[in-house]
Amino acid sequence: MAAIAVPQPRSSKTESYVDNKRKEDIRHVNIAAAKSVADAVRTSLGPKGMDKMISTSSGDVIITNDGATILNNMQLLQPAAKMLVDLSKSQDAAAGDGTTTVVVIAGALLDSCRVLLTRGIHPTVVSDALHKAAVKATDILAAMAVPVELSDRESLVKSASTSLNSKVVSQYSTLLAPLAVDAVTFVVDPEKPEQVDLRDIRIVKKLGGTVDDTELVKGLCFDKKVSHAAGGPTRMENAKIGVIQFQISPPKTDIEQSIVVSDYSQMDRILKEERSYILGMIKKIKATGCNVLLIQKSILRDAVTDLSLHYLAKAKILVIKDVERDEIEFITKTLNCLPIANVEHFRAEKLGHADLVEEVSLGDGGKIVKITGIKDMGRTTTVLVRGSNQLVIDEAERSLHDALCVVRCLVSKRFLIAGGGAPEIELSRQLGAWAKVLHGMEGYCIRAFAESLEVIPYTLAENAGLNPIAIVTELRNRHAQGEINAGINVRKGQITNILEENVVQPLLVSTSAITLASECVRMILKIDDIVTVR
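Above: the chain sequence. Below: its structure as tokens.
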């Protein structure tokens, strides 16, 4: 019997339609959001950049052109836009300067990526090409760099001045730049010169005077007066300083309760006990030879009372009260002493020694306390920042922080590079030449990235009121002739050898800006969907 043939279904491979429009839309939305953030800070780039006035939710006003500060205060909702804020923070942590530059470069790279994606190039191809371009760019920058020694103070001051020239307080760069260099070189440990901890440089802000009155204090400085309510001393030579974390005041009950006093004799007994308790503590302190007390602020009860201040004044002990808890570590490191948590542990070997502790009047009603001539002083220093109003003081502090970071960069990676858009144009030229050698999509993508790096000199010229197209064209021409240090001199409004104009920056600022910007752009490119979890 013949078997009946069952017809088999045809296994023809039919193409199914896949909708990629949503993925493309997500990418374009992310790129547009991040680009708008970059455009917001772009006008504040360079020495002629504009300042931003930021009004916070609490009603405070901040005037600054520091990229990290502007972005930190932006209330952003879009996730990709928030990535640019994190990018700026990363640059601030890595190099301290170039926070606006890194965001502007990221915005320009994203714009190039958007054009490449609309031409049908796959995001992975674009991402890989960008990674190769970033690696090549760091090599080109390293070849352009000029080595610098820590003993070459002039070069360090030049780089700090370049950082300050784009700030609101740029007119004070001749004062703040040497001050930043001296502060960092003072705290550098010769055994570990690469590790500079900026927490060893304390910035004390005091309202009054002008930024010209800012000074470096080789010792300690407190933005408060000596406690002389009971007529205590305000100046002490050959000071023996105790840093205490306990209270010189009557003890309180452990739990919240009230004590009822029924007659005068009981009240007298309580007051007598309080007096003898405080007097006993002060006698123990005086017995060690201590004549200056730094008292930590207490949240449990009053650190000192009027009675204890009276007895301390009688014992000729100078008192500085309400020292913040987070300042204790810095103070003990500077004074080379130990904090004392209990009066029973108060010993002479735990004290710090200084030649002079005095209250200094600043001439405009304000007073500060200075401790100078510290014996065996730790590697720390204090900068006293003055200013006519709080906005100026805050901006001076931010600018000084950037200058300190620049000097720290030079200490850890001792290479200088030209500023004024010179490295970006040179990168653009060399990457463009390298792209011609490469084949396929890779070369096409790298050429687009090379062109997007021209955004820095273009923006510098635009913010300075120059003709950006003419300036960038001339700059490109000068670099093609081999003038790798030709950059935009915004003061003269022309192109000059920027190294001779002393416009220099640490190599680390440029390399970390390129590396971090490319990493951020690659991350945004790889996102094809946004999932919201409620």
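The CA atoms of residues 120 and 180 lie 50 Å apart.
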